[in-house]
From TrEMBL:
Belongs to the PanB family. Binds 1 Mg(2+) ion per subunit. Mg(2+) binds at D67, D106, E138. It is found in: Cytoplasm. It comes from Sinomonas cellulolyticus. SUPFAM superfamilies: Phosphoenolpyruvate/pyruvate domain. The lineage of its organism: Bacteria, Bacillati, Actinomycetota, Actinomycetes, Micrococcales. This is 3-methyl-2-oxobutanoate hydroxymethyltransferase. The active site is at E204. Pfam families: Pantoate_transf (PF02548). It catalyses: (6R)-5,10-methylene-5,6,7,8-tetrahydrofolate + 3-methyl-2-oxobutanoate + H2O = 2-dehydropantoate + (6S)-5,6,7,8-tetrahydrofolate. GO terms for molecular function: 3-methyl-2-oxobutanoate hydroxymethyltransferase activity. 3-methyl-2-oxobutanoate binds at D67, S68, D106, K136. It is an enzyme of class 2 (transferase).
Length: 289
């Protein structure tokens, strides 16, 4: 789904493996085209220049600088403590290191709930200071007016419904949303947010059948994380995808597929380095001036 090498990226082709070399930026209309064509795109979180550059080279179409940085970068137990000021340098690092991906900045808890004006101000900071191309906020139809105000201000908005981690206390913990009769609520949320101008709807921890119904109810593309395969795109936290998170007592979510075991690789490398230093094998003559 990467943009073509054609200078007019409105004709960018979709489908098949993403190229490792491409020119042009993935834009929100490319995601819409993917849905229209029945194709798919990939999204990963990124929080620094190296992962952003690697994922961009790999052809990942969308990079999310998530509030998940709270528990994947800053060491918090949940996403709630992270602030706009903490996220802005991460967003800028990703945006300046990924020349092709669409970079989305996540609104942290407390940065948009007070009013549409607060949300617009936060969005302006992420686009102006962080150089993001779009923002994401959690919440259903209640935030339609907020989304509308942001879109009118020129801020592209990705909506996030289903399980919304910032509301974990109100939702009673990490629980699947949209089961049974509750599916209708998610459809109402998605259609209201689409009508307000959201260019995409992300669904987290939603039954596959509900996610499929939501996707069918809206014209904009959808993204899933623990929401089955009917969505246009899929997203994972990169540390989960690459097997960096782990260790004793750490559980991997059911919806995560690990494509590598970076934790073991780094652990082995660090142990070997420590052993070489303590034994005097490093640095050797070849590492000295």
């Amino acid at each position: 789904m990467a943009p073509s090498t054609n200078s007019d990226d409105s004709t960018a082709p979709y489908g098949g493996p993403a190229p490792t070399s491409r020119s042009g930026r993935t834009r929100i209309h490319h995601l819409a085209q993917a849905k229209e064509r029945g194709e798919h795109f990939a999204m990963l979180t990124a929080y620094d220049q190296y992962t952003a550059s690697i994922f961009d080279e790999a052809g990942i179409e969308v990079l999310l600088v998530g509030d998940s940085a709270a528990n994947n970068v800053f060491g918090h137990a949940t996403s709630l403590p992270v602030t706009v000021d903490e996220l802005l340098p991460l967003v800028r690092a990703v945006a300046t290191s990924a020349p092709h991906a669409l970079v989305v900045a996540d609104f942290p808890f407390g940065s948009y709930e007070q009013s549409p004006a607060q949300a617009v101000a936060t969005g302006v900071r992420f686009l102006k200071e962080g150089l993001a191309h779009a923002v994401k906020l959690e919440g259903g139809a209640y935030y339609a007016d907020t989304v509308r105000a942001m879109v009118q201000a020129g801020i592209p908005v990705m909506a996030h419904i289903g399980f919304t981690p910032q509301s974990e206390h109100a939702l009673g913990g990490y629980r699947v949303q949209g089961r049974g009769d509750d599916a209708a609520r998610l459809i109402e949320d998605a259609t209201a947010l689409e009508a307000a101008g959201a260019f995409c709807v992300l669904m987290e921890m939603v039954p596959a059948s509900t996610a499929a119904a939501v996707d069918a109810a809206v014209d904009v593309p959808t993204i899933g994380i623990g929401a089955g395969s009917a969505t246009t795109g899929q997203v994972l936290v990169w540390q989960d995808m690459a097997g960096l998170r782990g260790g004793e007592g750490v559980k991997v979510a059911k919806f995560v597929k690990q494509y590598a075991d970076l934790r073991t690789s780094l652990l082995d490398a660090a142990r070997a380095y420590g052993q070489d230093v303590r034994s005097g094998q490093f640095p050797g003559p070849e590492h000295s001036f």
